[in-house]
Amino acid sequence: MKKTNIVAFSILAASPFLIAIVALVSVMYGTKDISAITVWQAITAFDPSNVDHQIVRTGRIPRIAAVLLVGAFLAVAGAVMQGITRNYLASPSLMGVNDGSAFVITLAIVFFPGLPNYQMILLSMLGSALGAGIVFGFGSLIRNGLSPVRLAIIGTVIGTFLSSIATAIAMYFQVSQTVSVWYNTKVHMVDMDMLMLAIPFGLIGLVLALISAKAITITSLGEDIAIGLGQKTKTVKIISMLAVVCLTGTAVALVGKIAFVGLVIPHITRFLVGVDYRFIIPCAAVVGAFFLALCDVLSRFVNYPFETPIGVLTALVGVPFFLYLVRKHGGEKRA
Amino acid sequence: MRKKTSSVFVMTVSILMLFILGAGYLHITNGVFDMSVMDVLKTLLRIEPNSKFDLVIFEFRLPRIVIAALVGVGLGMAGVVLQGITRNGLADPGILGINAGAGAAVVIFMFFFQLRLTSADMSSWLSILMMPIFGFVGGAMAAVLIFSFALKNGHLDMQRLILTGIAINSGFGALSLFLSLRMNAQDYEAAAVWMAGSIYNANWIFVVTMLPWLILLGFYVYRKSYLLDYFQLEEDSITSLGIAVEKEKMKLLLASVGLVSACVSVSGSIGFIGLMAPHIAKQLVGIQHRYVMPVSALIGAGLLILADFIGKTVFAPSELAVGIVVSIIGIPYFLYLLVKSKA
């Protein structure tokens, strides 16, 4: 216990440096490399006529900010889901949360074009809730439905269903392009308004997750134990699902669907800091932010000078890790 | 009992044939411009041939229907084999990731050979004929990966099988996405259309490409279908019958991967047909695989022609990829099966 505390605190203590380094690299390198001094000048003494300053201010900084936020949001959402469901495969992308969000956004683009950004974020969250609600609802309806394997299957299949319907609707109303611009990963064109809105919404999610951290630890020991300890399991589930919805809804609204971050990072964090969600949640946020920022930097160099979708990078790490988890745990219930 | 099953079989097959004809009729008479059944018959039987009708029927609609039927047959049969081998009703080439493996291999092929799918000159014939072979290598690789991960103490662990399938799907999906983005615009267009699981650029070359695979492997798995009955028994009792279980399973698996790859190389990844068709077939003609197999093939063909018809008419003037129509129909069915199946 004492030892894990030390690891957790050192992760949190080292995080500003690590994140500052990856952020600096991210701002400096890309299709056009920009020196650190220019970056510094762009921040402190902005000169609108200088193209490099413009790139830093309007392109690179919003991008790294969005990537860091989304990495943190998705990792925390995944950690919360894994803890609450005691399912080692639970994660936003596998559980239809992303697809639910994309589905509702498609409907919004078709039927209410030109909605302001904050309403889009709210709708995106509503969609996350819808996707998660359908998957978990269905999972609890059928026998053994919340076991890792069944939930993963249900999540994948319902996710495919929602995205197929979204594709069909988009096709029918001929808005495919608008929709695909919206929910395909778009880290290279982060919207500044959206970013400013994502911060408060995401913070609400993070705070909710932190508030319920202790209860999640207890839940992760097992439903019976949690009830025995006098925990209001329903309330805990509702609050933590609200956190998940806020976090993933904002993440999808900001950059689109990114898979595997919410699956892999909580496992790595648990490996590092142990089973106490009061440490897991903040550490997952830091590790997730760092991981996604790193993937984003790499995504610019895999196929230089063209950018590779960041999802390809996360899959590169995520798929082998997923296979490893399956190999190790099979169908057991554990988080 | 035996007599009864076979008469049910004959009746089911006849009704399915009528269904396929009906779906084919809808498909061939409707479209960007509608034609009457007389027009179609006159054109097909070469009475008063008319170059406009000839073009529409022989170059666009007929190859498309034939491809839909063939892909349906292939996926329907492969689904029966996979469900029989794994003894799991939820097994499907799409869910197991075989589609994705074959698909990624075909994308690699398109990437390196800069294939224009629509061109029909002689030089492209050879490369199109090679596509199923590439698909087969990819599909077999995916199958080997999936099965090696799912083996636990020498036995297939179903849960791992499906989970590994999900992982393989996203892995190969990412690989295909990565490669397709590096293609030039024209190839990318072709690859993207193809990956969504569509057959609207069907032509006769594709038919020629996949036909030998379907005929050879189709007959092989049909001839071996009695084995699938035995596989439902306990492993020990099959061995005592003198059947080399693992060897036969491996051969059948490879044959079904071949069928799937031939389908994927012309139509892209179409899921859920291999899942639905065998189940419906079993409800119609019982559990004997020599009846289930052909019925499942016909159901696959009928479903796919119908789905393609829906995709092309409901969304006109744009077309919805048939793979997406199939998912919208197939997923509720899958969930229904999941509810029904025992945990």
From TrEMBL, chain A:
Gene3D superfamilies attached to this UniProt entry: ABC transporter involved in vitamin B12 uptake, BtuC (1.10.3470.10)
Keywords attached to this entry: Cell membrane, Membrane, Transmembrane, Transmembrane helix, Transport
Pfam families, per database record: FecCD (PF01032)
Subcellular location: Cell membrane
Topology term for the membrane: Multi-pass membrane protein
Record has Cell membrane as a keyword: yes
Main location: membrane
Sequence similarity: Belongs to the binding-protein-dependent transport system permease family. FecCD subfamily.
Protein's recorded name: Iron ABC transporter permease
Species this protein is from: Lysinibacillus agricola
